[in-house]
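Reply to thread "Modeling small-molecule complexes from scratch"

Following up on the discussion above, here's a worked example others can learn from. I took a protein sequence and the SMILES for copper (II) ion and predicted the complex. Inputs first:
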Amino acid sequence: MAAWSKFSNMASVGRWACSGRSRMSGSALHLQHQQAVRGASWFRPVTTSSKPSGTPERSRLVPILAASACVAAGAFYLTRQANARMDLAQDANVDVSSKSVRHPVATCSAAIRLRSMDFLRRTPMLQQSANSPRQLRITLSPTSPTPSEDSRIAFYDTLEANPPDVSTLPIEHAVLTSAPSVPPPLTRTHAALVKVDLTTSPKLVQVTNQYKYEAWTFNGTVPGPFIRARAGDVVELTLTNRDETGNPHNIDSHAFTGPGGGAALTNADEGEAKTARFRLLCPGLYVYHCAAAPVPVHIANGMFGLMYVQPADGEGGGSDLPAVDREYYVMQSEVYHEPPETDEETGRPSGTVEFSYPQGLREEPNAVVFNGREAALTREAPLKARTGETVRIFFGNAGPNLTSSLHVIGSHFRRVYRDGDVLSPPGRFVGTVGVPPGGAAIVDLKAVVPGTYTLVDHAIFRLDKGAVGFLNVAGEARPDVYGSAEPPAPCVGCKLHA
Ligand SMILES: [Cu+2]
């Protein structure tokens, strides 16, 4: 009778569960309950009881079986139909609704509608939930690593333990681009030996609207080339020093693993070339720079760039960020210079200025610029998009001193991969993101309303030091989103609102 008592309790739970009390799914679940009861009426229970059929014990089997069927039906129903309030990474292939379910059998404070059962199979936590619908209580937050994140991280934690035979890797020459261009995404799903050739040389640039400045460059540009590779790749970096001033140069890439980030292996004197190999163990967006002494001078003079290491975990070896329509490369940096000398012949101040170490020590830049020059993203090469397109900016801050407060006026970062971290869930609908010197972030925008959008460092006095860039969006007006009966009237002299 103890067993009967236990079953009886289950039956009462089942009746309660199927009584239609569920706020959202009660009627549907009740219907399934009725169907389950009707379906179970042909079943004759097997029992060791000596009591004849038709006894009260037998009659109690009906609600027990009905309850069992109801639980099964409820579990089936909930694993397919329950909705959720949670925010999973888009590439998890999960559709989310605003409804929540609280059901006594399978309480779902945050459940999910799965567009892809493949995701269910690949996610240990959800596998467990689906197998145990009574335990279907899913709580996710952007700051708590999910099991899927843990499994991704485990891939990289053990990556160094499985070195490839480099002699068997296919050889590629990296596509190197100058800002604001970005090399196309890598679609291969295997590791490669990626050859990267960087050459140092000085170059006179119009650093501000007023002054020219002799920058020290990688491949003749500030910032240096954008380098795109893939976790697990082996980068074969050759640094050739063609700087006739006699300064040594090297590469410290934050993407490389090892003391100095490669500086000691690549240090090249004038006329030298150094080659070294670096296996990429960590995905993300990283700054690289010259680390020859004195390091602050080499960085301040323009020797920096970005390296993006695409993720390589996931099925088939691919798990890059969600595809976007356009990708751009933007770096912020500071210029420290002495006052212009006076031309002895004309008596006028020179149009060319030289580096100032004291200004750098005081952390008081004369200019703060995007992509190496005040005009780089305004008059020379503003970013472009059309309405409806998604735009990704790989943003780096070379410093050397100031933290950037990156903001695009009138838009939102629909995804922010803070600190260049491409494994954690991205921030969503962010207005301003902080990027420290030597740091990076990936931000995704959506071009909704046409017009000119302004990139700024929201430490806003810096706009008067040159930290302004434009994103020009073409397309049809959207008065439903942004409109007035009056035409736009930017204030006179405004640098920000076109
Ligand atoms: Cu250098």
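What I'd highlight from this example: The chain has a mean pLDDT of 79. The first strand starts at residue 94 and ends at 95. Questions welcome below.
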